[in-house]
Write a structure and sequence with these properties.
Elements: H1 7-21, H2 24-40, E1 57-60, E2 64-67, H3 68-71, E3 77-81, H4 90-100, H5 102-107, E4 111-116, H6 120-130, E5 135-138, H7 143-147, E6 151-153, H8 156-164, H9 169-173, E7 179-181, E8 184-188, E9 194-199, H10 209-224
Length: about 220
């Protein structure tokens, strides 16, 4: 059986190919912004294992409003934070999770939700484009991302490039701000306790499915014991 290429290998290959074709000035803005985030992110503020999650609501593009209680009704909850529907790396990561994460989480009785601040009418495109078989939901005004300490704001070169493109990110997302969530995976058990959290300031680095599955399996093992 052929070995499955990891998500981060796939993303690294994508970036290597893009670097060959992207204009040097735009590539530098992209690389510099990601490096700045890695160097300056306040990791002490990131959501972490053992945190207790207070009630929240998300708006799923098809199902509408979903509360934390509803999402935890039948088992653990896995939240995958991503930037927006047009984000190239997100269009690699979410289909990868659909193939390599979602089926095993269903088997384990866990709920998988992709979360972005983008408005539902805009966010729907990524779910439909890839026929994603898990929930895709809006975190209105970045409320949950802010609570989890995972937001970042565009640096000045990125803002200028966004404006020059004719599509400032606040218009793209519908939030009217320069804020986006860093990619993150958060596993919450039915008591509302975070059991696993992984946040990546570099949006070209994402949590591998195996790490998330292992966290959910640990919850299942504890419940059985």
């Amino acid at each position: 059986m052929a070995r499955v290429q990891s998500l981060n290998q796939t993303l690294a290959e994508f970036q290597a190919k893009r670097a060959e074709t992207m204009p040097a000035d735009k590539l530098k803005i992209n690389v510099d912004q990601r490096r700045l985030l890695v160097e300056t992110a306040d990791r002490s503020a990131f959501v972490k294992a053992s945190d207790q999650v207070q009630p929240f609501e998300l708006t799923e593009v098809d199902a509408g409003r979903l509360s934390l209680a509803a999402l935890l009704k039948n088992g653990p909850l896995v939240l995958i934070f991503f930037r927006f529907a047009g984000c190239p790396a997100c269009n690699i990561a979410l289909p990868y999770y659909d193939q390599h994460l979602a089926p095993e989480l269903r088997r384990l009785g866990a709920m998988l939700v992709g979360v972005s601040p983008q408005a539902p009418d805009k966010l729907r495109h990524i779910k439909d484009r890839h026929h994603l078989d898990f929930l895709i939901a809006t975190d209105t005004d970045n409320a949950l991302g802010r609570r989890f300490g995972i937001l970042y704001s565009f640096d000045e070169p990125s803002r200028r490039a966004s404006i020059e493109s004719g599509s400032p990110i606040g218009e793209v997302t519908g939030t009217g701000t320069w804020e986006l969530p860093m990619p993150a995976a958060v596993v919450i058990d039915q008591s509302g306790t975070v059991r696993f959290a992984d946040v990546s300031p570099d949006w070209l680095v994402r949590t591998e499915p195996g790490d998330i599955i292992a966290a959910v399996q640990t919850i299942a093992t504890r419940a059985a014991a």
